[in-house]
Specification:
about 425 residues; mainly alpha; about 0% strand
């Protein structure tokens, strides 16, 4: 792809309106080193899902949970690389030069239907993450600041979620991700610091209590645990932009594998330590087990601040898609406010943080991470693959569908039984 000349005339020309094949990303960023790519992949994957892992370990047993995390980590890496291989093939054979995102790849392989599927799943997954953030903030603040059973006629969780709404409307009105970047860096630093403090606290509690733990749960909780694990590793939508930005693209697969392995060990350690520390008393958010000390309070508040400022960043892909489809690609304040309001309403209706993680992981992340990548890979490489490659793509796709349907059904049963 050559560089364009005549930049002065280009600056005076209005950009064409966005279409189905218009990439969501703008001008390419400066190429990244291996260490920066590691950091970017880490940030893209690690999120609030880590806080529900100890509870998942309690439900499914620590050995079963570790095995599920390992399986999901391996599948996540494989499916991410399927997207990379598919894009490289299309660009080399057909000369495509602007397949910058998952949605662009879906359009190239399957046309408008492919992009529509990716767009819908990205909307549901990103909005689902934000619902989880609000549930965590509401439950945590209700635990820390709970003067009475009702505040202005509302239960404490609902009061704090509604209290976040006007501030979130303001933050989500910011149009540029560039202006949100400092908030993202601050949120990530707070998140990593809080995770480290929680793990140290878990070790100290474990050495004092030594509670009984189980290695394996029943088959009935398998899909629940898989949903939480899949949610925790969700980040497939960012793999193509990150690979595009890497300087030495031949090493992207190794860097991705190392990062996913690192995250697996961190998740495994965090989930196991939390469960080992509190045993059957482990709550759906591990921070609820930390007590009322100063350090515990600062960690909880830090995580709330982290998720509060991360929410508008996570909603940005939703705004890009919705505004492109319903507002000609232009900024639309009322659409953004409506989406924030809907996310808040869903957060008010879900009682359990970990159950919601399982629902989003099973219902959305399975399709986004384990169904569409092998489908797109199969459609592009079907004339070149032998029966082994064909079987692997079809097998992963079928597994994703089975896990998605079964996990969604189980998670909905858990949520409705909690509401009953």
């Amino acid at each position: 792809m050559g560089l364009e000349t005549g930049s002065s005339s280009k600056a005076l020309t209005a950009p064409p309106p966005p279409r189905e094949d218009t990439p969501l990303l703008g001008e390419p960023q400066a190429l990244s080193s291996q260490s920066k790519t590691f950091a970017n992949v880490f940030i893209a994957i690690v999120g609030a899902g880590v806080l529900g892992l100890p509870y998942a370990f309690k439900r499914t047993g620590w050995v079963m949970s570790l095995l599920m995390l390992l399986a999901v980590a391996a599948l996540t890496h494989h499916c991410m690389m399927l997207l990379v291989y598919t894009r490289r093939k299309l660009e080399s054979v057909n000369g495509f030069s602007k397949i910058n995102s998952f949605g662009d790849l879906g359009f190239t392989v399957c046309g408008p239907i492919g992009k529509f599927l990716v767009d819908i799943l990205i909307i549901l997954s990103q909005a689902g993450f934000c619902v989880g953030y609000l549930i965590f903030i509401g439950n945590t603040l209700a635990d820390l600041i709970n003067f009475s059973p009702r505040i202005l006629g509302l239960v404490p969780k609902s009061f704090y979620i509604w209290g976040c709404l006007p501030f979130q409307l303001g933050l989500n009105s910011i149009a540029s991700l560039t202006h949100l970047a400092p908030l993202s860096i601050f949120a990530d630093v707070v998140d990593l610091g809080a995770i480290g403090v929680v793990m140290v606290e878990d070790v100290l509690v474990f050495l004092k209590q030594w509670p009984a733990v189980k290695a394996f749960g029943g088959i009935s909780v398998f899909f629940y645990g898989m949903g939480v694990a899949i949610y925790s590793f969700e980040g497939v939508g960012m793999v193509l932009p990150l690979e595009s930005e890497m300087k030495d693209k031949d090493k992207f697969g190794k860097v991705l594998a190392f990062t996913v392995a690192f995250i697996f060990f961190m998740y495994g350690g965090f989930g196991a330590l939390g469960y080992f520390a509190f045993g059957e008393e482990t709550k759906d958010m591990i921070t609820a087990n930390l007590g009322a000390g100063l350090v515990s309070t600062l960690v909880k508040l830090g995580l709330c601040v982290n998720l509060f400022f991360t929410l508008p960043i996570m909603m940005n892909p939703v705004y890009e898609i919705v505004e492109r489809r319903f507002w000609g690609g232009s900024y639309c304040l009322w659409l953004r406010w409506l989406l924030v309001f809907l996310v808040s309403l869903v957060a008010l209706s879900v009682p359990n943080f970990a159950d919601f993680l399982s629902l989003v992981g099973s219902g959305v992340c399975c399709a986004l991470g384990f169904v569409l990548p092998p489908l797109f890979h199969f459609l592009v490489f079907k004339d070149e693959m032998g029966w082994k490659g064909w079987s692997l793509d079809v097998g992963i796709g079928v597994l994703g569908i089975v896990l998605g349907v079964s996990g969604t059904w189980y998670a909905l049963l858990e949520i409705f039984s909690a509401n009953a």
